[in-house]
């Protein structure tokens, strides 16, 4: 079974804090993705990566950065958390040929107060 | 860019058939996915269509018409456990990004 593991299920952080969301996959997938999910808006792509040390901006990258130092790990960083970044964050991975779809992690519910 | 529309909510009765529609406008297209997401859980892959026609997988079927920018997910013999959100997602022509619709919440009542 492909597993995508997100380090925290729930997080509460203060405005202005630097926040790290970690994601690890165990199936040697090339592609990794970070989405946020908000009611009525669906999943929106923040950043993605096709290879180690490679990153590309998605549709809503502002206020976020990412790091992929190892193939299995893809980190999302909120440089200075703000209340409008309160959301569910979903990490996903896939083979380079994505016909089999993404495998998602269970998500991190982040609340910024 | 992509624009993906699907109904916000639907209600159906246990044992019935329900069809969830998805329309998309795109500058490029390379496949359409359906995902199921139970409340508080990760989305799970249901189906993938890249050619026109119907793909059947047990109680679930998915249809695609590329010329109409239209897909539907058909759920037969509904069960209470089918109550979930159903997400339509389009793969762009180049690369492996998926663009998701806002999802359809399906409620199955007894």
Question: Total number of helical segments of chain B?
Answer: 0
Give the tally of β-strands of chain B. Answer: 11
Element-by-element helix/strand order of chain A: EEEEEEEEEEEE
Query: Radius of gyration of chain B in whole Å, from Cα?
Result: 13 Å
- Indicate the low-confidence ranges of chain A by residue numbers: none
Largest sheet of chain A: 7 strands, mixed
In helices, the fraction of residues of chain A equals: under 10%
Largest interface: A-B, 28 and 23 residues
End-to-end Cα distance of chain B, whole Å, is 40 Å
What does this structure look like?
The complex is a heterodimer of chains A (113) and B (110). Chain A has strands at 4-6, 10-13, 19-21, 23-25, 31-38, 42-49, 56-57, 64-70, 73-78, 87-94, 103-104, 108-112. Chain A is mainly β and 113 residues long. Chain A is globular, with a radius of gyration of 13 Å. In chain A, 37% of the residues are buried. The model of chain A has no long low-confidence stretch (mean pLDDT 93). In chain B, a hairpin with a 4-residue loop joins strand 7 (60-65) and strand 8. The radius of gyration of chain B is 13 Å and the shape is globular. With 110 residues, chain B is mainly β. Chain B has strands at residues 2-5, 9-13, 18-26, 32-37, 44-49, 53-57, 60-65, 70-75, 84-91, 98-100, 104-109. Chains A and B meet through strand 5, strand 6 and strand 11 of A and strand 5, strand 9 and strand 10 of B.
């Amino acid at each position: 079974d492909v597993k995508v593991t997100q380090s925290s299920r729930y997080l509460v952080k203060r405005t202005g804090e630097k926040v790290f969301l970690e994601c690890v996959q165990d199936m040697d997938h090339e592609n990794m993705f970070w989405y946020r999910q908000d009611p009525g808006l669906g999943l929106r792509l923040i950043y993605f990566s096709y290879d180690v040390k490679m990153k590309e901006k998605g549709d809503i990258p502002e206020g976020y950065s990412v790091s992929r130092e190892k193939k299995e790990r893809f980190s999302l960083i909120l440089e200075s958390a703000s209340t409008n970044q309160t959301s569910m964050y979903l990490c996903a991975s896939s083979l380079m040929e994505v016909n089999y779809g993404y495998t998602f992690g269970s998500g991190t519910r982040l609340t910024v107060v | 860019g992509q624009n993906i529309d699907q109904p916000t909510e639907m209600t159906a009765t246990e044992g019935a058939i329900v069809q969830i529609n998805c329309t998309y406008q795109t500058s490029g297209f390379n496949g359409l996915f359906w995902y199921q997401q139970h409340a508080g859980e990760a989305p799970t892959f249901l189906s993938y269509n890249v050619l026109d026609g119907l793909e059947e997988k047990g109680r679930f079927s998915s249809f695609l018409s590329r010329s109409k920018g239209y897909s539907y997910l058909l759920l037969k013999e509904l069960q209470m456990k089918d109550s979930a959100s159903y997400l339509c997602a389009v793969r762009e022509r180049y690369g492996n990004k998926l663009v998701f619709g806002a999802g359809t919440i399906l409620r199955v009542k007894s």
